[in-house]
Amino acid sequence: MVTTMNIFVCIKQVPDTETKIKLNADSSGIDMAGIKWIMSPYDEFAVEEALRLREKNPGSTVTVVSAGPVRVVDTLRTALAMGADNAIHVDSPEGADNFRSARALAAALKKEPKVDLVFTGKEAIDDGAAQVSQLVAEFMGIPYVTVVLNAEYAAGSVKCKREVEGGAFEIVTTTLPALIAAQKGMNEPRYASLPNIMKAKKKEVKVLKESDLGVGDGDQKIRYKNYQLPPPKQAGKKISGEPAAQARELARLLHEEAKVI
Question: Does one domain contain both 89 and 192?
Answer without folding.
Answer: yes
